[in-house]
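S.,

As promised, the EPZ run. Input:
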Amino acid sequence: MKKIIINGGKRLSGKIKIDGSKNAALALIPASLLTKDVVTLENVPDISDIHEMLDILNILNVSYEFIDNKLTIDSSRIINTPLIKKNIEKIRASYYFMGALLSLFQNVQIIAPGGCKIGNRPINYHLNGFRKMGINVNEMDNVFNMSYVILNNTTIKLPFPSVGATINLVLAAVKSDNIIIIDNISCEPEVNQVIDFLKSCGARIKKIGHNTLIIIGTAKLKGTTFKVMNDRIEAGTYCILAALLGDNLLIEGINKDHLNSLFTILDKVNADYFIKDNIAYFNKSNLNNPFEIETSPFPLFPTDLQQPICVLGSFLPGQSIIYENIYEDRIAHIKELNKMGADIKIFQNKIIINGRTPLFSNKLKAKDLRGGAALIIAALSAKGTSLIEGVNYIERGYPNIIQKLSNVGADIKMEDS
Ligand code: EPZ
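Predicted complex:
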């Protein structure tokens, strides 16, 4: 089993480069299939979730080449194979093959999606949206069978601006010869990437106002080359680390517009940084205020940074508060942080962090992706040598994290016993 060993307490300096967005790339891979042509995606992060998605392409007889973050996909010979192999339920984004294969073949058989254990994570918004479009949805033993003859022209109002449901419904609608309106869509940058990608393939998708999409089905979509945006959650994770330990630490590949909610918090806690072009420069910070955060859909504070920023709260005076409004069980990191000396309490979705509690090394266990990142930040900030298990979770979304941190002075290594 892989373990990460960290000898903490060191200041970090140098440059960390941000890779492509996991959550954009995971959606763009199934979206590429709609062209039944050759699509090249640039800036694709080399992480285990991407490789899980590529394994699914093999099942569908779709060829690909993935070298130096460039992914070329040829779906001209795609076959609508049932996606019921166990490994498919490892990741959440497998559900995008529902929309893609429904668009291509008007039917799909696929096992229910998995993903990090951070809450119940149902897919009812996806399924009810499919049904509204006229798609028959049946589920038996955790496998979905869906099919339709023709879609309805319809308007779907999402109960919540769900990232996954927005993307999945767009994928299902975009090749039909119908007009589908989706209201209360997610405005996350990753969703905009999928819409921009599909429009570059010839799709007719129009945004009306702030959160309504009109999709006028386009029978033929053509191949294209598309650059994946940088990962705003990877960037935010390293900026939180830089606020704690940076001393002339540069985070390159930042899109400030994607992280305004985080930078507002870093300003509040008196982090010493400035942003020029796409680089955030962090000097040694004298952190001196607590924060209060409500996790919410973009452009407000992202739930994916809730776990990393919990660590920052331990190093601030007074009481920092986080209301986790998106996932009811995104708290597995808190027990681990408290083992290190943190003083964090939870009341329903309210996380209370009593600050200025120095952290001490310990043996830790990551139980999900962003919680694992939080444990790395905590171990780097703590005195002594920590050991972190559950590395497989971290490898899902943080490319080359050991190398990136070693390059800026962290005493960190991976052991594979
Ligand atoms: C995407 O998950 C991301 N994952 C998540 O990132 C991210 O936290 C989330 O969006 C919110 O931004 C990927 O893109 C692969 P949602 P998704 O549908 O699409 C509930 C990470 O760490 N809901 O916006 O699953 C759901 O349970 C991961 O990179 C329903 O109730 O998120 C959650 O409480 C973690 N029914 C809320 O809505 C549904 O049908 C937001 O979910 C769908 C969602």
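Residues 22-23, 26, 92-93, 116, 119-126, 160, 162-165, 186, 188, 303-304, 326-327, 369-370, 397 surround EPZ (CB under 6 Å). The longest strand covers residues 246-252.

- D.
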